[in-house]
Amino acid sequence: MTLSGGWEMVVGLEVHTELKTNTKMFCGCANAFGAAPNTNVCPVCLGLPGSLPVLNVRAVELAMAIGTALHSTISPSTFHRKNYFYPDMPKDFQISQYDLPINAGGYLDLPDGSRVSIERAHLEEDTGKSTHLGGSGRIHGADRSLVDYNRSGVPLVEIVSGPDIRSSSQARTYAAELRGILIATGASDGRMEEGSMRIDANVSVRRPGEPLGTRCEIKNLNSLRSLVRAIDFEAARQVALLEGGGSVRQETRHWDENLGSTSTMRVKEEADDYRYFREPDLVDLVPDQAWQDRVRDGLKPMPAERRAALTQRLRDRAPALLDALEVVIDLGLDPYVIAALDAEVDADLAFARAANEIASDLVHADNLSVESYVATLLMEQSGDLSATQAKAVLVEILANGGEPVSIARNKGFERLASDALSEVVATLIEENPDEWSRYRDGDEKLAQFFIGQVMKLTKGQANGKEVIAALQARR
Amino acid sequence: MPNLRREDVAHVAKLARLTMSEAELDKFTEQLGQVLDHASDMNALDLEGVIPTAHPFGLINVVRDDERRASLDHDVVIAMAPDAEDGRFAVPRILGDAP
Amino acid sequence: MKSVRQTALDVQNGDASALSVLEESLAHIRARNDELNVFLYVDEEGARAAASAVDERVARGENVGALAGVPVALKDNLCQTDIPTTCSSKILEGWRAPYSATVVDRLLLAGAVPVGKTNLDEFAMGSSTENSAFGPTKNPLDTTRVPGGSSGGSAAAVAADMTPLALGSDTGGSIRQPAALCGLIGVKPTYGLVSRYGLIAFASSLDQIGPLTKTVADAAMALEVIAGHDPLDSTSLPEPSPSLVAHVEDGVAGKRIGVVRDLIDGADDEVVAAVDRAVEVLREAGATIVELSVPEFRLGLSAYYLIAPAEASSNLARFDGVRYGLRVNADDVTAMMEATRTAGFGDEVKRRIMLGTYALSAGYYDAYYGQALKVRTLTIDAFRRAYQEADLLLGATTPSVAFEFGSKTADPMAMYLSDVFTIPSNLSGEPAISIPFGTGEAGLPIGVQLLGPGRSEAQLFAGARVLEIADGRP
Predict the structure, then answer these.
(1) Beta B84-85 vs B88-92: how paired, if at all?
(2) What is the ipTM metric for this complex?
(3) Contact between chains at A87 and B11 (C-beta distance less than 8 A)
């Protein structure tokens, strides 16, 4: 959406992601979604008097992986206390990172060729979760609130972009690409709907070439769609305000998905003074080069690299499929497709069996090796397996593991010998004289009739192309 | 250094979630002012270039493995609560969202 | 009561039962606790169970541990499962910790018998135990005077023969000063030597747990048991517990002892005289004496009274009435937190919270907290230079003997000044020990202080032992 009247929007995004660790940031409680309230808690994540934090090494490594993927400089870092009172904060301070974050600088190149700078990506702990009773269930108008500390202490990485984004669609692309990176590093499951990835948007407007305008922060956007709508609304709101002679007040605003608008959160009595100081219960983090190298070497390819690998293979062979490749990347199925393409499998087939069969049982994708996928498709391509049979093999491997040749044999997917096929075709021609004469006279549609009959008789073992060949031979 | 003003103490009390009576504000302003005055010898020093101390013995990279440890029993946790409902800690209404 | 060493020997050998030792301890407590207000909570049931368990293990011929059957008093800022822990504050009145501090676990593993929780200045903020919300503790040697603070209850427990061993915590002198005022050995270990897990934090970068005992050997035994790496404390030093008991009789021959004017000047004449006598004893024992001046130590007081309250203001934020402890109800949660904290904290705690909040606040951080952290570096560097010329340092522990109740409460600065000799070691993180050496006004004990570089506890005990023998306590 372009702004009216020669205005430009300037957007920076702050993305918080929960890390996919086994345990919390500073204690050994489970890092799990959906447990009964206050069951995954201990003296540390409850902030009981006398408790002390100890840093989770896996959280550090995932943070370093994110930094590496974002081209950041992994730096010696310290932890700081961010002090403020709030009931979902057990210590009434949050352990975070302030002026010395683990990842400094960096950038993210988007598929459209634009580059968004990254200011920092740092580690911090999550807070507990409150539910509000009375009123509408929203915080305003509630009588009381109930707090669950299961989420308290879950490790977070906060990624702060520079104010380089110029449209809501670019913001969406940035968020989607970042999400793909977070999933590819193993750091996050990217489930915005579960709150494991949350986005805050800083939005301001200006006339191009002028200094940055006053920005507003829009908090806790939980879907890419909300992100786009909220940014567009907010930019338009600010433009209308300025064009009407008013000025934008720097404030935090809340996006309401139902109303389709942002509104001011209750103005606080005092400005936030977080009184940051170095966390005395933790020591400095200084990842040496060897550790950084191990993290870098362990990184799987990022979406951009995988996109390029697919694009390069499709560009000449099957350019029509270029539009479909984002789905494959997003689902993480590109290793299958690329391997199949490299084995000379037909591009449409390579895509279809991934986007359909594997995608329908994605949660079990680990059961299907790339080699098995390629082998199955090659068998289908050569006629050893029919389409139906090939699909059945893939479904079986996904559900229960195994490998294609023995599965095919166990299921009796023997290739129908060509003389056997000839006999079947001959029998059908005899039994269906009307249909045969119409086909012989040129009614191509009846080929499907005969294929269907052949399939019925052979229990799906025949290869469609071979049936057509057999029919044409007799014409 | 500017002398400690009564408004500063009032502001700081609010930040620290403490209510002060007028008399207490006066008393604390005077007492805290004395401590800060005593620190003026320290303030006067030019310590440009001196690196603040973190851990006195330079410990770094203290981490633990990503392994489970027993959590507290839920009943024990909730039993400590001044007010609880449905296994959660209950508090009076919250005015204003988190920063 | 018998010493820690003798008790452990007797119990392990079967010459005395842990239960009988405990009964003696409980009798002493019953005799004087109402008068002195030492223990806020006596855990008779738990202690009897622990003592019986020790006796059963002895009967089975097992090696119980270095502190077999030894009754221990715990400062009430140490968590012990299911036992009330209050930090002498109304805000935690009635709270029972659901877990135990690492030091408590280690005591129990060594066969010790925790008997109860002792009084302190509220949240360890004070030097006289007059800041307790549950009344002050009286000095057993003269009940018109303070036992010192903040570990006043722990010091009184040992001085009144209720237990031979107590644990305290030291942030600016809170073990050493009460030890000095009550005629005891008190040790502040190297920062990180003893785990802080389960110690309710006052100033995280300064706090250390340590023993108060009547003899040097007892203190060494106790420290060996509680010291050593703890994976639950990120600031804990990586090494296991050091060997200390074996070095108590090492002596000081060939050691250089630095007498630091800045740890003596300003003390009462009788205290200065005691330090001078200590110098002679050490010289005669074969040490070389060096006169040192370390003016940076004088800055320590200002730095401490900004760093400690700053960290404390953050550490005490969690007391907000939401999850445990006192709650004073109100219409909204912020009002509830304010009402709770205002009712729950005493004046000294409020003073330090506000001072600390101010020192950290926007616009003032650099001038106060930031500057204080730099002074800390100056202090560390100054110690490092001193230890190029000396192996150990000697000074006074406190400027005077035990003072009368109410004599320093009118003016907080007056109370703070009594920490001037102990604070430098907290800032540097290095260990120090207070040893009773002679008496002063009204026969009250005087404490002298030995200081050493990081992890030099063995040498500190050896030096303290020389002074102990010379003071007539072989």
Answers:
(1) antiparallel
(2) 0.96
(3) no
